[in-house]
UniProtKB/TrEMBL annotation:
Cofactor(s), by name: heme
Pfam families on file: p450
Annotated protein name in UniProt: Cytochrome P450
UniProt-listed PROSITE patterns: CYTOCHROME_P450
A molecular-function term among this protein's GO annotations: heme binding
Domain of life: Bacteria
Homology family: Belongs to the cytochrome P450 family.
Keyword match Metal-binding: yes
Keyword annotations from UniProtKB, A to Z: Heme, Iron, Metal-binding, Monooxygenase, Oxidoreductase
Length: 449
C-alpha cells in the first residue's frame, strides 16, 4: 500500500455488479469485503454502485474527511434509515442547527459533571451482581446491554426504567434489523418509510412503543417543574440565544439518541472484552493482579481510574479489534478533493475503524489481542486517525469521556467479583450492522472469585 495518488480521476477498486456495483459482495460480509478492498487496492478504493463511494484506508485521508474537508460533507444518506427513530437529534442533525444543539448539550458532558455519575455506575453494577449466582449461565451481551441502559437512563434522565427495559431493547433490535435490511438491499433502501411492508410496520410499532416511554419521561419532568443536574433537565430548560426552548419533539429526538447510542456502544465494548478475556487467561491474570493491588477487595471508584492502567488498556485494545462503530460514512454535499482525487457532490465516503485498526503499518501483529501494546504512551505515537473508535473532528463522540469512564469502572467492578468463562470455545462472529454486535449470544458461566 502507499499513500500516493495518480493522475487518474478515479482510484482503482472492484468491478462489481453492472447495475448494483459493490453492493452484492458488500452485503454478504461487509467486514471481509472492506478488508479485502484495502489489501487489494490500497489506501483509496473506488466502489461502484447507485451511489459511487470511496473507501479511505489511510489516517491522513481520514483526517481530510473528518477534519479538513468536513465542511463539504454531511452525514451519510444511510442516516435516513434511522431518522424515524432518532429524528433531528445530535447524531443526525446538520449545519447551524447541529452546532447550536452541540453547544447547548456539551455542558452535560463536562468532566466535572460526568464524575458525579461514577457512583451511579458502580451502584447499578452492584445491583446486577447481586442478582447473579455462582455457576449460572447467562448471555453476557444481554447483561451488559441491560446494565448500561439502566445507567444511561439514571445518569442522563434521572429515571428508573426497569419496567421499560424490554420496550427499549425491542426498539434497539428493531432499529438494527431495519437498518440491516434497508442498507444492504437497494430496493428496500429506495422504498419510502410509509410503504406498509412487514419490516416497516415492525419498525414503526417499536418506535411507537418507545415514544410512549420517552414522552412519559418528558411529561413527568415538565409537570414536576423540578430542575436537576441531568441531561433531561438541560434539554427542557436551556434556551438558545434567541430565547427559544426545545419542543417536546426535539427533546424526544435527543433523548432517543442518547438513550440508544449512549448505552449500546459501551455495552458492546464490554461484551467483546469479556469474550476476549475468556479467550486469553494470561491477560485476565494481569487484570486481576492490578485489581487486587489497586482495589484491595473493595469496589472501584472514580479516584482509582488513574491507577487502573491495564484495565484501560484492555478497553482500548478491545475497541481496536471490535470498534462498536465499525464504519463512518459521509455524503459529499459540495464538490471537493480528498486524497488528491476530485470527489463529486452526491458521492459517498467511508472510513472503517475495523480496517484501519488492523493495519500492520500502525499495529504490529494486528490480529493479536495485546493490551500491553498501549504501554509507553503508544497512542501518542500513532497517526491521529490510525485509531478512532469515537470518530473525530468536530463530530467526535460527545460522550467519549463518559463511555471510557463507564467501561473501565464496570470492567473493574465485575472482574474483581466474578470470573467469566465462555460456555463454548466456538468463535463468536461479529455482525456488522449499524454497530458491531455479536452475531450470536455470548453464553458464559459465572464463577465467583
Amino acid at each position: 500500500m502507499n499513500t500516493s495518488t495518480t493522475s487518474s480521476p478515479i482510484p482503482s477498486g472492484p468491478n462489481g455488479h453492472f447495475l448494483l456495483g459493490a453492493l452484492p459482495e458488500y452485503s454478504r460480509n461487509p467486514l471481509e469485503f472492506m478488508s479485502k478492498c484495502a489489501r487489494t487496492y490500497g489506501d483509496v478504493v473506488y466502489l461502484t454502485g447507485l451511489i459511487p463511494s470511496y473507501l479511505l484506508n489511510h489516517p491522513d485521508f481520514i483526517e481530510e474527511m473528518l477534519v479538513t474537508q468536513h465542511q463539504h460533507l454531511i452525514k451519510s444518506q444511510l442516516g435516513k434509515i434511522t431518522k424515524p427513530l432518532l429524528g433531528n437529534g445530535l447524531l443526525l442533525s446538520e449545519g447551524d442547527f447541529w452546532k447550536q444543539q452541540r453547544h447547548l448539550i456539551q455542558p452535560a458532558f463536562h468532566r466535572s459533571r460526568i464524575a458525579a455519575y461514577a457512583e451511579v455506575m458502580i451502584d447499578y453494577t452492584q445491583r446486577m451482581l447481586n442478582t447473579w449466582l455462582p455457576g449460572e449461565i447467562r448471555d453476557i451481551h444481554h447483561e451488559m446491554m441491560n446494565l448500561t441502559l439502566m445507567i444511561a437512563a439514571k445518569t442522563f434522565f434521572g429515571s428508573e426504567i426497569e419496567s421499560d427495559v424490554d420496550v427499549i431493547d425491542r426498539a434497539v433490535k428493531a432499529m438494527l434489523e431495519h437498518f440491516d435490511r434497508r442498507s444492504t438491499n437497494l430496493l428496500l433502501f429506495l422504498l419510502p418509510d410509509y410503504v406498509p411492508t412487514l419490516g416497516n410496520l415492525r419498525f414503526r410499532h417499536a418506535i411507537k412503543q418507545l415514544d410512549t416511554v420517552v414522552y412519559r419521561l418528558i411529561q413527568e419532568r415538565r409537570s414536576s417543574g423540578k430542575q436537576t443536574d441531568d441531561l433531561l433537565s438541560m434539554l427542557l430548560y436551556l434556551q438558545a440565544e434567541d430565547g427559544t426552548r426545545m419542543s417536546d419533539r426535539q427533546v424526544r429526538d435527543e433523548v432517543n439518541t442518547f438513550l440508544l447510542a449512549g448505552h449500546e456502544t459501551t455495552a458492546l465494548t464490554l461484551s467483546w472484552a469479556w469474550y476476549l478475556l475468556s479467550k486469553h487467561p494470561e491477560v485476565e491474570a494481569k487484570l486481576l493482579a492490578e485489581l487486587q493491588t489497586v482495589l484491595m477487595g473493595r469496589s472501584p471508584s472514580l479516584s482509582d481510574l488513574p491507577r487502573l492502567r491495564y484495565t484501560e488498556w484492555i478497553i482500548l485494545e478491545t475497541m481496536r479489534l471490535y470498534p462498536p462503530v465499525w464504519a463512518i460514512p459521509r455524503t459529499v454535499a459540495q464538490d471537493c478533493e480528498i486524497a488528491g482525487y476530485p470527489i463529486k457532490a452526491g458521492h459517498g465516503l467511508v472510513a472503517s475503524p475495523w480496517v484501519v485498526h488492523r493495519d500492520p503499518r500502525w499495529f504490529s501483529n494486528p490480529d493479536q489481542f495485546n493490551p500491553d501494546r498501549w504501554n509507553n504512551d503508544f497512542a501518542k505515537n500513532l497517526p491521529t486517525f490510525a485509531y478512532f473508535p469515537f470518530g473525530g473532528g468536530s463530530r467526535i463522540c460527545i460522550g467519549k469521556a463518559f463511555a471510557m469512564m463507564e467501561a473501565c469502572l464496570l470492567l473493574a467492578a465485575i472482574a474483581s467479583t466474578y470470573r467469566i468463562r465462555l460456555v463454548s470455545q466456538e468463535a463468536v462472529k461479529p455482525w456488522a450492522s449499524l454497530t458491531l454486535r455479536p452475531k450470536q449470544a455470548i453464553k458464559v458461566c459465572l464463577n465467583r472469585r
